Amino acid sequence: MASVNQKAINLWTARVIPVVLIGLAGYATWVVIVLVCIDYLLKPSPAIREPRPGAGIAILTVYACLLLFLALTYFRLTYTVIANPGYTPRGPQWHAQNSSKRQRRRSSRAVAPPPDLEKQNGSLGEQPAFNGVLSASPGVPASSAYGPTDDALAPGLQNFYKRDVFSCESDGRPIWCSTCLNWKLDRAHHCREVGRCVRKMDHFCPWVGGIVSETSQKFFVLFVCWGTIYCVFVLIFMAKFVAERAPIGVNIHWIVLLCMAGLFSLFLLGMSGSSLQFVFQNTTTIENLSRKTKVWQLAVLMPRVPAHSYNRPPYRTITYGQDPNNTRTFAILHSRPGENPWDLGHFRNFKSVMGEHWYDWILPIKPSPCANHDRQDCHFEIGPAVERMKSEVGIISHTAFDEEKPRRHRRRRRRRSTHTRSADPAAENNETRREERRKKGRGHSSLRNESRRDSGVDR
Prior knowledge:
By secondary structure, the protein is an alpha+beta fold. It has helices at residues 2-42, 53-83, 92-107, 115-121, 158-161, 217-245, 252-281, 285-288, 346-354, 384-393, 398-423, 425-458; strands at 133-135, 165-167, 176-177, 182-183, 188-191, 196-199, 203-205, 210-212, 297-301, 316-320, 328-334. Helix 6 (217-245) packs antiparallel against helix 7 (252-281). Residues 115-124, 135-153, 419-423 and 452-459 have low confidence and may be disordered.
């Protein structure tokens, strides 16, 4: 009962706080426009001081622009949270059980479900059987290997084994949600406030009215960043005018707005820093709780069965598919503690969330590219850690993996040197002179060698 009450409180709080935030923004706008810009700067009382139209118009213009960006970002964020929260579908078992519960409630008498329905639905949280074959490799106990079953393929499992990489349990199957009664997609987490699994869930935020997930993470980052700039701007000019009016008395609304701006500036500054950190690391608030110790289990497609040797770590395999001529075998691999398989590098991580172009980074228009799951290899783009895992177990050759790293470093050095020469003409001229000296040095040395050979022939 306590958990149900807490969930209800959280949901009602998420519905009320956005209205409160809109009211606070309206109050701040009234204080800035009416009490500060008009009554104090543009049309002050003659007993106070002379008008300052330049300062008043400048503050009005900047404030209106910041408020516009903040309002657009917040409304885009709340709309996405409500209309497209990023829920994953519930399983067929959940819908069957839910319909049977509704029928029992309508009948007003306890009626046991038919035996065939009970057999079809299964018990709560039971994982459906599948036709995969789990085999043990050398060094793995044989008791951990499961044999094939005769039951039908679990619905939705094809969405995983048709790809090349997916998150899995130790037995090779995708992660199972005992509440939604369905397989969890990669990086999905179950939210107890709404009772649903959410794709790349970040956190439940009552300030925006719901869950921040892959569909709304970009807009949340934009909202907290624009909110920080807005609050810091209000804090700066309100602190100046409060100090200016302190000797003759300060309006109480000015002091209230100054305290609000200071409080929200500190709060949003911390939120902006942590949100941008998660974006650059390609992680979420939930994943960050165990970021340094998390070990990911991945089922990785094996294009060929590698030859086992004693110096390789043992791993297990699982085979999906009913047709023996059309099966897919996966190796069950583990990442190192704290290693993120989805880490693409700081800049690529940033672009996967915020967008490809600079205007996507400041405008709340396009959704995040990572919310598009049309990829065939994985639900999310995988990073170099997965290639290293493949190389360690022999799915790809060590030579191919080792040659890729210096090639990437050479490209980086080449781009860096090109950028340095284009940015500094003097450095480019010095580089040209050094190259000419090297060519001349090689020419003089060749002439000296020829003269020595000629003198030796004369002798």
